[in-house]
Amino acid sequence: MPRNIIDVTDLTVEEIDQLIATAEDIIADPVKYQNACAHKQLATLFFEPSTRTRLSFESAMLALGGSVLGFSEANSSSTAKGETVGDTIHTVSCYADIIAMRHPKEGAPYAAAQFSEVPIINAGDGGHNHPTQTLTDLLTIHREKGRLDNFTVGFCGDLKFGRTVHSLVNALSRYANINYVLISPNELKLPRYVKEEALKKKGIPYTQTTDLESVIPQLDILYMTRVQKERFFNEEDYLRLKDSYILTPEKLVNAKADLSILHPLPRVNEISVAVDRDPRAAYWRQVKNGKFIRMALIMKLLGIEV
Q1: CB 11 within 8 Å of CB 19
Q2: Which residue among 43, 163, 277, 299 is least packed, with the fewest CB closer than 10 Å?
Q3: Active site residue 143
Q4: Is 102 labeled as catalytic in the residue annotation?
Protein backbone atom coordinates (compact mmCIF):
# COMPACT_ATOMS: atom_id res chain seq x y z
CA MET A 1 0.00 0.00 0.00
CA PRO A 2 1.30 3.48 -0.81
CA ARG A 3 1.81 5.90 2.04
CA ASN A 4 -0.54 8.90 2.07
CA ILE A 5 -0.39 12.21 3.91
CA ILE A 6 -3.95 13.22 4.75
CA ASP A 7 -3.30 14.87 8.11
CA VAL A 8 -0.05 16.34 9.42
CA THR A 9 -0.25 13.86 12.34
CA ASP A 10 0.30 11.08 9.78
CA LEU A 11 3.93 12.13 10.18
CA THR A 12 5.86 11.57 13.39
CA VAL A 13 7.73 14.45 15.02
CA GLU A 14 10.97 12.78 13.92
CA GLU A 15 9.75 12.61 10.32
CA ILE A 16 8.76 16.29 10.39
CA ASP A 17 12.17 17.22 11.73
CA GLN A 18 13.74 15.12 8.96
CA LEU A 19 11.63 16.86 6.30
CA ILE A 20 12.68 20.25 7.65
CA ALA A 21 16.33 19.19 7.56
CA THR A 22 15.92 18.02 3.94
CA ALA A 23 14.21 21.29 2.99
CA GLU A 24 17.04 23.26 4.61
CA ASP A 25 19.53 21.25 2.55
CA ILE A 26 17.54 21.92 -0.64
CA ILE A 27 17.64 25.65 0.12
CA ALA A 28 21.39 25.47 0.68
CA ASP A 29 22.15 23.36 -2.42
CA PRO A 30 19.23 23.15 -4.91
CA VAL A 31 21.43 21.87 -7.76
CA LYS A 32 22.01 18.64 -5.83
CA TYR A 33 18.29 17.84 -6.12
CA GLN A 34 17.55 18.95 -9.67
CA ASN A 35 17.28 15.40 -11.07
CA ALA A 36 16.00 13.63 -7.94
CA CYS A 37 12.58 12.90 -9.49
CA ALA A 38 13.61 12.55 -13.13
CA HIS A 39 11.00 10.49 -15.05
CA LYS A 40 8.50 10.77 -12.16
CA GLN A 41 5.09 12.37 -12.62
CA LEU A 42 2.99 14.35 -10.15
CA ALA A 43 -0.76 14.70 -10.76
CA THR A 44 -2.38 17.83 -9.30
CA LEU A 45 -6.12 17.22 -8.88
CA PHE A 46 -7.66 20.47 -7.68
CA PHE A 47 -11.44 20.27 -7.32
CA GLU A 48 -11.33 23.72 -5.65
CA PRO A 49 -9.51 26.90 -6.80
CA SER A 50 -5.94 27.44 -5.65
CA THR A 51 -2.96 29.54 -6.69
CA ARG A 52 -0.13 29.08 -4.20
CA THR A 53 -0.69 25.45 -3.25
CA ARG A 54 -1.15 24.15 -6.81
CA LEU A 55 1.72 26.17 -8.28
CA SER A 56 4.06 25.34 -5.39
CA PHE A 57 3.44 21.61 -5.92
CA GLU A 58 4.08 22.02 -9.64
CA SER A 59 7.18 24.17 -9.03
CA ALA A 60 8.45 21.63 -6.48
CA MET A 61 8.13 18.67 -8.87
CA LEU A 62 9.68 20.56 -11.78
CA ALA A 63 12.59 21.66 -9.58
CA LEU A 64 13.18 17.97 -8.79
CA GLY A 65 13.37 17.15 -12.51
CA GLY A 66 9.94 15.53 -12.67
CA SER A 67 6.86 16.43 -14.68
CA VAL A 68 3.29 17.46 -13.84
CA LEU A 69 -0.19 16.66 -15.16
CA GLY A 70 -3.67 17.37 -13.82
CA PHE A 71 -6.46 19.92 -13.64
CA SER A 72 -7.11 23.11 -11.69
CA GLU A 73 -10.91 22.99 -11.38
CA ALA A 74 -13.55 20.28 -11.13
CA ASN A 75 -15.37 21.49 -14.25
CA SER A 76 -12.40 20.55 -16.41
CA SER A 77 -12.44 16.94 -15.18
CA SER A 78 -14.79 14.04 -15.82
CA THR A 79 -16.48 14.66 -12.48
CA ALA A 80 -18.45 17.28 -14.43
CA LYS A 81 -19.90 14.32 -16.36
CA GLY A 82 -20.80 12.51 -13.16
CA GLU A 83 -17.68 10.39 -12.64
CA THR A 84 -17.04 9.57 -8.98
CA VAL A 85 -13.95 10.88 -7.24
CA GLY A 86 -12.94 7.26 -6.62
CA ASP A 87 -12.96 6.46 -10.33
CA THR A 88 -11.06 9.66 -11.12
CA ILE A 89 -8.36 8.77 -8.59
CA HIS A 90 -8.15 5.16 -9.76
CA THR A 91 -7.67 6.38 -13.34
CA VAL A 92 -5.09 9.05 -12.54
CA SER A 93 -3.07 6.69 -10.36
CA CYS A 94 -2.51 4.64 -13.52
CA TYR A 95 -0.74 7.65 -15.09
CA ALA A 96 1.12 9.33 -12.22
CA ASP A 97 3.58 8.32 -9.52
CA ILE A 98 2.10 10.61 -6.85
CA ILE A 99 -1.05 12.75 -6.48
CA ALA A 100 -1.71 16.08 -4.78
CA MET A 101 -5.44 16.56 -4.25
CA ARG A 102 -7.56 19.50 -3.07
CA HIS A 103 -11.29 19.12 -2.53
CA PRO A 104 -14.01 21.27 -0.93
CA LYS A 105 -15.47 18.32 1.00
CA GLU A 106 -13.87 17.34 4.29
CA GLY A 107 -12.49 13.82 4.22
CA ALA A 108 -12.48 13.56 0.40
CA PRO A 109 -8.70 12.93 0.11
CA TYR A 110 -8.96 10.19 2.75
CA ALA A 111 -11.79 8.54 0.82
CA ALA A 112 -9.89 8.95 -2.45
CA ALA A 113 -6.83 7.26 -0.95
CA GLN A 114 -8.81 4.02 -0.73
CA PHE A 115 -8.84 3.89 -4.56
CA SER A 116 -5.28 5.02 -5.31
CA GLU A 117 -2.32 2.87 -6.25
CA VAL A 118 0.12 5.75 -5.61
CA PRO A 119 0.70 8.13 -2.66
CA ILE A 120 -1.88 10.88 -2.15
CA ILE A 121 -1.07 14.20 -0.51
CA ASN A 122 -4.01 16.15 0.89
CA ALA A 123 -3.64 19.68 -0.52
CA GLY A 124 -6.62 20.92 1.51
CA ASP A 125 -10.06 19.46 2.23
CA GLY A 126 -12.77 21.97 3.07
CA GLY A 127 -12.30 23.52 6.50
CA HIS A 128 -10.60 20.37 7.77
CA ASN A 129 -6.88 19.88 7.06
CA HIS A 130 -4.06 21.33 5.00
CA PRO A 131 -0.96 19.34 6.01
CA THR A 132 1.52 20.74 3.47
CA GLN A 133 0.64 24.29 4.50
CA THR A 134 1.36 23.20 8.06
CA LEU A 135 4.73 21.78 7.02
CA THR A 136 5.39 25.11 5.29
CA ASP A 137 4.48 26.94 8.49
CA LEU A 138 6.73 24.69 10.59
CA LEU A 139 9.68 25.19 8.23
CA THR A 140 9.09 28.95 8.32
CA ILE A 141 8.93 29.04 12.12
CA HIS A 142 12.10 26.94 12.29
CA ARG A 143 13.92 29.25 9.88
CA GLU A 144 12.66 32.38 11.64
CA LYS A 145 13.21 31.25 15.24
CA GLY A 146 15.73 28.42 14.95
CA ARG A 147 13.44 26.11 16.93
CA LEU A 148 9.95 24.61 17.19
CA ASP A 149 9.48 24.97 20.93
CA ASN A 150 9.53 27.58 23.71
CA PHE A 151 7.56 30.46 22.22
CA THR A 152 4.17 32.19 22.31
CA VAL A 153 2.07 32.01 19.16
CA GLY A 154 -1.06 34.00 18.44
CA PHE A 155 -3.64 32.78 15.91
CA CYS A 156 -5.80 35.65 14.69
CA GLY A 157 -8.92 35.86 12.53
CA ASP A 158 -11.04 32.98 11.30
CA LEU A 159 -10.17 30.14 13.65
CA LYS A 160 -13.44 28.28 13.07
CA PHE A 161 -13.12 27.51 9.36
CA GLY A 162 -9.36 28.01 9.02
CA ARG A 163 -8.00 24.56 8.15
CA THR A 164 -4.44 25.93 8.25
CA VAL A 165 -4.99 26.94 11.88
CA HIS A 166 -6.46 23.56 12.85
CA SER A 167 -3.53 21.70 11.30
CA LEU A 168 -0.87 23.97 12.81
CA VAL A 169 -2.38 23.85 16.31
CA ASN A 170 -2.35 20.04 16.08
CA ALA A 171 1.24 19.97 14.85
CA LEU A 172 2.65 22.42 17.39
CA SER A 173 0.91 20.63 20.26
CA ARG A 174 3.56 17.91 19.91
CA TYR A 175 6.38 20.35 20.72
CA ALA A 176 7.30 21.59 24.21
CA ASN A 177 6.45 24.78 26.05
CA ILE A 178 4.35 26.63 23.49
CA ASN A 179 1.80 29.16 24.70
CA TYR A 180 -1.32 29.58 22.53
CA VAL A 181 -3.26 32.82 22.22
CA LEU A 182 -6.49 32.45 20.21
CA ILE A 183 -7.73 35.78 18.85
CA SER A 184 -11.07 35.84 17.04
CA PRO A 185 -14.65 37.12 17.08
CA ASN A 186 -16.88 34.96 19.26
CA GLU A 187 -18.54 33.56 16.12
CA LEU A 188 -15.20 32.36 14.69
CA LYS A 189 -13.58 30.72 17.70
CA LEU A 190 -11.38 27.64 17.32
CA PRO A 191 -13.75 24.61 17.22
CA ARG A 192 -14.21 22.78 20.49
CA TYR A 193 -13.03 19.47 19.02
CA VAL A 194 -9.67 21.02 18.02
CA LYS A 195 -9.20 22.50 21.51
CA GLU A 196 -10.18 19.20 23.14
CA GLU A 197 -7.95 16.96 21.02
CA ALA A 198 -4.89 19.17 20.55
CA LEU A 199 -4.79 21.21 23.75
CA LYS A 200 -7.05 20.14 26.63
CA LYS A 201 -6.26 16.40 26.44
CA LYS A 202 -2.56 17.23 26.65
CA GLY A 203 -3.00 19.78 29.43
CA ILE A 204 -1.70 22.60 27.22
CA PRO A 205 -2.83 26.04 28.43
CA TYR A 206 -4.31 28.58 26.03
CA THR A 207 -5.88 32.04 26.14
CA GLN A 208 -8.92 33.17 24.15
CA THR A 209 -9.55 36.83 23.41
CA THR A 210 -11.27 39.12 20.93
CA ASP A 211 -8.66 41.88 21.32
CA LEU A 212 -5.49 41.61 19.22
CA GLU A 213 -3.83 44.80 20.43
CA SER A 214 -3.97 43.78 24.10
CA VAL A 215 -1.99 40.57 23.51
CA ILE A 216 0.35 41.50 20.66
CA PRO A 217 3.23 42.56 22.98
CA GLN A 218 3.59 38.98 24.31
CA LEU A 219 3.68 37.21 20.94
CA ASP A 220 6.76 35.69 19.28
CA ILE A 221 4.71 34.60 16.27
CA LEU A 222 1.48 36.10 14.93
CA TYR A 223 -0.41 33.85 12.51
CA MET A 224 -2.96 35.98 10.66
CA THR A 225 -5.83 34.47 8.65
CA ARG A 226 -8.50 35.86 6.37
CA VAL A 227 -12.20 35.51 7.03
CA GLN A 228 -13.11 33.04 4.28
CA LYS A 229 -16.16 34.09 2.29
CA GLU A 230 -16.44 30.65 0.68
CA ARG A 231 -17.05 28.97 4.07
CA PHE A 232 -20.05 31.14 4.99
CA PHE A 233 -23.66 30.18 4.30
CA ASN A 234 -24.84 33.72 5.02
CA GLU A 235 -23.26 36.70 3.23
CA GLU A 236 -24.59 39.05 5.90
CA ASP A 237 -22.50 37.26 8.55
CA TYR A 238 -19.44 37.39 6.30
CA LEU A 239 -19.78 41.13 5.69
CA ARG A 240 -20.20 41.74 9.43
CA LEU A 241 -17.09 39.77 10.38
CA LYS A 242 -14.70 40.16 7.43
CA ASP A 243 -12.90 43.26 8.78
CA SER A 244 -12.70 42.12 12.41
CA TYR A 245 -8.90 42.37 12.42
CA ILE A 246 -6.74 44.49 10.16
CA LEU A 247 -3.02 44.48 10.99
CA THR A 248 -1.38 47.87 10.42
CA PRO A 249 2.05 49.35 11.27
CA GLU A 250 0.39 51.27 14.10
CA LYS A 251 -0.80 48.04 15.74
CA LEU A 252 2.77 46.70 15.63
CA VAL A 253 4.28 49.56 17.65
CA ASN A 254 4.16 47.56 20.90
CA ALA A 255 5.04 44.21 19.33
CA LYS A 256 8.39 42.49 19.89
CA ALA A 257 11.26 43.53 17.64
CA ASP A 258 11.71 39.89 16.58
CA LEU A 259 8.02 39.07 16.09
CA SER A 260 7.40 36.88 13.02
CA ILE A 261 4.16 37.58 11.14
CA LEU A 262 2.85 34.61 9.17
CA HIS A 263 -0.16 34.28 6.87
CA PRO A 264 -1.13 31.25 4.73
CA LEU A 265 -2.43 33.62 2.02
CA PRO A 266 -4.33 34.74 0.06
CA ARG A 267 -4.98 37.87 2.06
CA VAL A 268 -7.85 40.23 1.45
CA ASN A 269 -7.28 43.23 3.70
CA GLU A 270 -6.45 41.69 7.09
CA ILE A 271 -2.80 42.77 6.71
CA SER A 272 -2.18 46.25 5.38
CA VAL A 273 0.25 46.32 2.44
CA ALA A 274 2.24 48.84 4.51
CA VAL A 275 3.22 45.94 6.80
CA ASP A 276 4.96 44.21 3.86
CA ARG A 277 7.95 46.53 4.33
CA ASP A 278 8.36 45.55 7.98
CA PRO A 279 11.21 43.01 8.42
CA ARG A 280 8.92 41.11 10.79
CA ALA A 281 6.61 40.26 7.88
CA ALA A 282 7.56 36.66 7.12
CA TYR A 283 4.68 35.68 4.83
CA TRP A 284 6.55 36.12 1.54
CA ARG A 285 9.43 34.05 2.93
CA GLN A 286 6.73 31.55 3.98
CA VAL A 287 5.54 31.29 0.34
CA LYS A 288 9.06 30.37 -0.80
CA ASN A 289 9.41 27.81 1.97
CA GLY A 290 6.29 26.03 0.68
CA LYS A 291 8.09 24.92 -2.45
CA PHE A 292 11.08 23.49 -0.57
CA ILE A 293 9.11 21.52 2.02
CA ARG A 294 6.90 20.05 -0.72
CA MET A 295 10.04 18.97 -2.58
CA ALA A 296 11.18 17.18 0.57
CA LEU A 297 7.77 15.52 1.06
CA ILE A 298 7.49 14.34 -2.56
CA MET A 299 10.89 12.69 -2.31
CA LYS A 300 10.03 11.06 1.00
CA LEU A 301 6.77 9.54 -0.29
CA LEU A 302 8.48 8.30 -3.45
CA GLY A 303 11.28 6.78 -1.38
CA ILE A 304 13.95 8.92 -3.04
CA GLU A 305 17.11 9.93 -1.20
CA VAL A 306 19.84 12.22 -2.50
Answers
A1: yes
A2: 277
A3: no
A4: yes
